[in-house]
Write a structure and sequence with these properties.
The protein is an alpha/beta fold and 305 residues long. 29% of the residues lie in helices and 25% in strands. Bound molecules: guanosine-5'-diphosphate (GDP) and zinc ion (ZN). Zinc ion binds next to helix 9.
Length: 305
């Protein structure tokens, strides 16, 4: 409508087509998109205008990145404008290398540096085992942060606090790793806030919102985005031929391949296959990583047709 000035806002939660928008003053209101193009995600910066007690999103400002989740039928985006991804796994329950790899690839595809946090370091024996399973990931150059949310107490492990400061971090992890513990430790009142948000977005019905933004500090400089569903990471927007570039251990051996368009699955003169068949040095591609590569390649190829 003519005359009404557009206001700025940040999307802090979304449910279906509605979302909760926070104004620069810290007020929150429910907004609806004007149309398909103004459908916003958590982390989006939007322009909106008031209509009665709710708002209408007129425009989603350009995104610096976009994250996807897997649906039963297709890939859907769910968060935008992240600075980093924290993959929270634990000594117990045992983590899945496939899920970990999917999350690392998803972050890499958006050129975001992922950090792996290995929680429950207080459980000595399982921790030792998990730490060893992560050795190849450390060699590939991923940062792995050991911690104990239980033992370190207070406001959380110091290294983690430092890592998060001033950034927008998407927290991912399988259930049981300690994600709720982490969020409740860093965001006092998070549980109550989640309840309020889901109530507001579902007009009273108490269902959980899928993705939620939390401010860690009152000055609103540090944020966490909580999103359930680790295994559901959507990768269908990635080309199969791009996969090897997003797996550092595979990429390192792919430079020796005879064919420039080698898939590393069956070609003669393949540096990756040669290496998998005779693993001689530290830093070799593990059998499990090569198997995951093959499975993902097939999955991404199928989704093209
Ligand atoms: P979520 O499913 O990822 O949200 O996991 P929770 O935060 O609910 O944690 C799962 C369980 O692990 C709970 O019983 C927590 O108390 C426990 N837990 C969380 N952090 C630690 C830790 O550092 N050490 C140990 N031993 N247990 C932890
Ligand atoms: Zn090859």
């Amino acid at each position: 409508s003519a005359g009404a000035a557009l206001r700025e806002g940040l999307v802090v939660a979304s449910h279906g087509r509605h979302c909760l928008v926070e104004t620069p003053e810290g007020e929150r209101l429910i907004c609806h998109p004007r149309g398909k193009k103004s459908q916003a995600l958590v982390g989006d910066r939007v322009q909106w205008q008031a209509s009665e007690d709710e708002g209408t999103i007129e425009r989603v400002l350009p995104r610096k990145n976009l994250f996807y989740r897997r649906d039963e039928i297709r890939t859907k985006s769910f968060a935008a404008n992240l600075d980093q991804v924290l993959i929270l796994i634990a000594a117990e329950p045992e983590f899945s290398e496939t899920q970990l790899t999917r999350a690392l690839i998803a972050a890499g595809a958006e050129r975001i540096t992922p950090v792996i946090a290995l929680n429950k370091s207080d459980l000595a024996v399982p921790f030792e085992r998990a730490w060893k399973r992560l050795a190849p990931y450390r060699r590939m150059g991923y940062r792995v942060l050991p911690m104990s949310l239980k033992a370190d107490g207070g406001s959380g492990p110091a290294e983690l606090t430092e890592l998060l400061a001033g950034k927008v971090t998407l927290v991912l992890g399988p259930s049981g790793a300690g994600k709720s513990t982490l969020i409740n430790l860093l965001v006092p009142g998070a549980r109550a806030l989640t309840g309020e948000i889901s109530q507001a977005l579902n007009s009273g019905k108490h269902t959980t919102t899928s993705t939620t933004w939390y401010w860690v500090d009152p000055a609103r400089t540090t944020a966490l985005i909580d999103s359930p569903g680790f295994q559901e990471f959507g990768l269908h927007h990635i080309e199969p031929m791009q996969l090897a570039h997003l797996m550092p251990d595979i990429a390192a051996q792919a430079t020796d391949c005879k064919f420039y368009n080698c898939t590393h699955l069956h070609e003669p003169g393949c540096g990756v296959i040669a290496q998998v068949e005779s693993p001689t040095h530290e830093g070799a591609i593990s059998a499990s990583r090569y198997r995951i590569y093959g499975e993902l390649f097939a999955e991404l190829s199928q989704s093209r047709y």
